[in-house]
């Protein structure tokens, strides 16, 4: 199982901020994802960032729902890698 | 006071009182925008939701534009007309618009200038002949109309249209130049050049570096003030406004200003190089103004006192505004016409809500 | 148009916001046809103020994603001219409210050139524009103006309410040989800074597909009352319908999807079934979409009509303050009240 790490996509100019919000999910729980496919969009300090899937597989669990806050480093979702 | 002679130092041309007044307006406007930014972001953290918080909707702040309004409006009287675009606060402050009622309008309150109907892009204060349009360059023709009225009535009132450098590509502006030129109308077109039309740098969308060149095709006077300095703008505006007041026709006056905040609040400015943001910060018209004040014998203490007074005025206006009542929803149906029509507008929805057992 | 079986929004794990669905359609068309390009204010680096061109600059460059001066008359008119040369411009008017700046190019050139030429020229352009209120942007930045565009002959008018529809309608709009006004509601785009309601984000197949013009979509079936609506208010009507179902009122919600052409038949079929018609429109009350739908229902199904109601913006400009905008903008409760009133 692989965590989708929010810190990995943190925008450079938002270094002084530690909170973000999930704006949109693009994959339903249980859905198949390709590696690097955009799976959600987060907002940090007014900047929107697309979050890519770290691996191909099944998105088993969404950990932060839309319009919910998270802290930098919180996992956003879990992916069960294929093969 | 107006001096048209060329002098060796600007400090001689502008009187101490005027200098102090301009500085006070500028620090008022700067503090106002900084405070509105705070109020606006209230309720919009960490997720930025444009419709949340005490000030919803778009908010275009003018930090970095203050010198233009202060330098130009120093030559204006209440009878003179000013129109402003979507970024109007500094102009309104220098024109003498009622700050408390303007703030109440921005907070959408019942005692606001427009009773909450206009919002920050649509400020109207007929007591000092101030009006806005939120659509690019569309405040320009009405300024020409005010000048036309002054000429017809044979007064020495003038009109000033403020617009951004992005607006000089609009037909409404170019056609206005021609109409004003043909009729020799007492109007000044003040082009505030902050180098950016939202995300579009000036050189990408406008063919000339010096926007005042637009005047050439219409046989209209022109000048560009290349420095973001209220005193330099004051001098140039003195001649342009004086020309209009004395019946010698319109002027295009372009002034260099800087955009210290985004186009609107919430603009991440990802398109804008960091260096450009930094340069805009460094070229601060308020700091320059402090230099002028110092030359004129104002001590640091004097300046601090002025700033304090300005800040207090802003705080009071914001405090007063936030204390004002929200408008009654029923007022939404009023003011469509000055001579109100009976049973206007049709209110079938209300009858339905009532039939359903009450309001929503 | 031959109708291929659509894959449908449920056929994929992938969900998109409306803006991303639109962009996907534009990008696909641009890859396939060199003659398609985008022109508008802040479409390049900014990606469109409402994300309608987000990411296109990176793939297609400044030659095909063209920032233009703030000169609506000029660049919309230039779109008309380029289209008459056979290119397929997608021209963005940042807010529909700004149409007035370029009204002559839209009303007298874009819409009429095909007819005035006796059919010898065509204007295959898309005029893409943001509409709607709900975020306190006041009278000059909140209108839908559906009726203003649909009124004048010569323009096809498209109003998507979901990502699935938005993509299919965009493909159809770009491929169409006539001017198509593509009106997207800001609140539906899925912008991080203007959260959308439940509903517009849907499954969107990766392959391209078209949604034919003149095909309304029954977004919810019901036997008691017909609600005809479009854009944002599809979702408000669905919300009202879900609430009323608890009270045993079954509402049919018809999403018009295109205003020109208008799918009168789907409206009539539903009205013949329910006898009761509610039209919900974010545009002004008078001389607009709501009046048109009622007129068509009267002409086509007068004997079946038992009750009619319109839920619209009143005939006032749109006010700024929150309590004032909330008052004039129809919400789900207003729709529910109208459904109840005709249902009695």
Structure in a nutshell:
With 83 residues, chain A is mainly beta. Chain A has no helices and 8 strands.
Overview of the molecule:
The complex is a heterotrimer of chains A (83), B (360) and C (344). Chain A has a single domain (2-81), classed as RNA polymerase II/Efflux pump adaptor protein, barrel-sandwich hybrid domain (OB fold (Dihydrolipoamide Acetyltransferase, E2P)). Helices cover 0% and strands 51% of the residues of chain A. Chain A has strands at residues 2-5, 19-25, 32-33, 38-44, 47-52, 57-62, 69-71, 75-81. In chain A, the strands form 2 sheets. Chain A has a 4-stranded antiparallel beta sheet, with no helix packed on it. Chain A has a 4-stranded antiparallel beta sheet with strand order 5-4-2-7, with no helix packed on it. Chain B is of the alpha/beta class. Chain B has one domain (10-326): Thiamin diphosphate (ThDP)-binding fold, Pyr/PP domains (Rossmann fold), CATH 3.40.50.970. Chain B contains 13 helices and 8 strands. Chain C has 344 residues and is of the alpha/beta class. Chain C is globular and about 60 Å long. The termini of chain C are far apart. Chain C is 36% helix and 20% strand. The mean pLDDT of chain C is 96. Chain C folds into 2 domains: 13-203, Rossmann fold (3-Layer(aba) Sandwich), CATH 3.40.50.970; 217-343, Rossmann fold (3-Layer(aba) Sandwich). Chain C has helices at 18-32, 56-64, 72-84, 103-110, 113-116, 146-151, 163-175, 232-245, 264-274, 289-301, 322-328, 332-343, and strands at 15-16, 36-40, 65-67, 88-95, 126-131, 156-158, 180-185, 202-203, 217-220, 225-229, 251-255, 258-260, 276-284, 307-313. Chain C contains 12 helices and 14 strands. At the B-C interface, helix 13 of B face helix 3, strand 14, helix 11 and helix 12 of C.
């Amino acid at each position: 199982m692989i965590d989708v790490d929010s810190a990995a996509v943190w925008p450079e100019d938002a270094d002084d901020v530690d909170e973000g919000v999930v704006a949109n999910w693009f994959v339903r729980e249980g859905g198949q994802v390709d590696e690097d496919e955009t799976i959600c969009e987060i907002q940090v300090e007014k900047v929107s960032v697309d979050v890519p899937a770290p691996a191909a597989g099944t998105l088993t669990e969404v950990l932060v729902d839309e319009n919910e806050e998270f802290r930098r480093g919180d996992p956003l979702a879990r992916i069960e890698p294929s093969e | 006071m107006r001096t048209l002679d060329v002098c060796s130092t600007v400090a001689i041309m502008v009187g101490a009182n005027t200098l102090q007044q301009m500085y006070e307006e500028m620090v008022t406007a700067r503090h106002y925008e900084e405070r509105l930014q705070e109020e606006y972001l209230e309720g919009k953290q960490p997720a930025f939701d444009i419709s949340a918080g005490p000030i919803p909707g778009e908010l275009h702040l003018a930090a970095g534009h203050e010198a233009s309004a202060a330098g130009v409006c120093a030559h204006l009287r209440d009878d003179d007309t000013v129109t402003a675009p979507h970024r109007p606060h500094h102009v309104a402050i220098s024109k003498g618009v009622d700050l408390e009622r303007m703030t109440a309008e921005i907070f959408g309150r019942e005692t606001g200038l427009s009773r909450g109907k206009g919002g920050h892009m649509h400020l109207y204060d007929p007591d000092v002949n101030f009006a806005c349009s939120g659509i690019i360059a569309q405040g320009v023709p009405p300024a020409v109309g005010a000048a036309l009225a002054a000429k017809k009535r044979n007064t020495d009132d003038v009109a000033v249209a403020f617009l951004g450098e992005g607006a000089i590509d609009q037909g409404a502006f170019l056609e206005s130049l021609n109409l004003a030129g043909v009729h020799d109308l007492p109007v000044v077109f003040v082009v505030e050049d902050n180098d950016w039309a939202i995300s579009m740098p000036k050189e990408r969308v406008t063919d000339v570096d010096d926007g005042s060149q637009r005047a050439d095709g219409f046989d209209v006077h022109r000048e560009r003030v290349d420095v973001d300095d209220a005193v330099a703008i004051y001098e140039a505006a003195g001649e342009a406004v004086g020309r209009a007041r004395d019946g010698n026709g319109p002027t295009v006056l372009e002034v260099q200003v800087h955009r210290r905040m985004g186009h609107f609040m919430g603009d991440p400015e990802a398109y804008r190089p960091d260096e450009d943001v930094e340069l805009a910060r460094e070229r601060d018209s308020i700091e320059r103004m402090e230099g002028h004040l110092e030359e004129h014998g104002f001590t640091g203490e004097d300046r601090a006192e002025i700033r304090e007074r300005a800040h207090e005025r802003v705080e009071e206006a914001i405090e007063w505004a936030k204390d004002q009542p929200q408008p009654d929803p029923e007022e939404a149906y009023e003011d469509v016409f000055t001579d109100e029509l009976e049973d206007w507008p049709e209110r079938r929805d209300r009858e339905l809500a009532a039939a359903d057992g009450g309001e929503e | 148009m031959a109708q291929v079986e659509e894959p449908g929004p449920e056929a994929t794990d992938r969900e998109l916001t409306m803006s991303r669905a639109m962009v996907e359609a534009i990008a696909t068309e641009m890859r396939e046809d060199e003659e398609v390009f985008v022109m508008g204010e802040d479409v390049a680096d900014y990606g469109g103020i409402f994300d309608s061109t987000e990411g296109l600059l990176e793939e297609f460059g400044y030659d095909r994603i063209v920032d233009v001066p703030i000169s609506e008359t000029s660049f919309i008119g230039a779109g008309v001219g380029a289209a008459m040369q056979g290119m397929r411009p997608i021209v963005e008017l940042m807010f529909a409210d700004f149409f007035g700046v370029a009204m002559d190019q839209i009303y007298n050139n874009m819409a009429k050139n095909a007819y005035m030429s006796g059919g010898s020229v065509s204007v295959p352009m898309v005029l893409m524009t943001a509409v709607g209120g709900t975020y306190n942007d006041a009278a000059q930045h909140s209108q839908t103006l559906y009726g203003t565009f649909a009124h004048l002959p010569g323009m096809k008018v498209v109003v998507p309410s979901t990502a699935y529809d938005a993509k299919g309608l965009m493909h159809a709009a770009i491929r169409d040989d006539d001017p198509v006004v593509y009106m997207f509601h800001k609140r539906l785009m899925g912008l991080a800074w203007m959260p959308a309601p439940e509903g517009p984000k849907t499954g969107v197949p990766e392959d391209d597909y078209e949604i034919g013009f003149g095909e309304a979509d029954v977004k919810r079936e019901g036997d008691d009352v017909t609600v005809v609506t479009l854009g944002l208010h599809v979702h408000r009507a669905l919300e009202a319908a879900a609430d009323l179902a608890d009270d045993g009122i079954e509402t049919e919600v018809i999403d018009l999807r295109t205003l020109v052409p208008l799918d009168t038949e789907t409206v009539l079929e539903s009205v013949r079934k329910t006898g009761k018609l509610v039209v919900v429109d974010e545009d002004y009350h008078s001389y607009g979409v709501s009046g048109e739908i009622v007129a068509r229902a009267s002409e086509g199904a007068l004997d079946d009509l038992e009750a009619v109601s319109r839920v619209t913006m009143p005939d006032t400009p749109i006010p700024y303050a929150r309590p004032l905008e909330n008052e004039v903008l129809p919400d789900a409760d207003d729709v529910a009240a109208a459904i109840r009133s005709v249902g009695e």
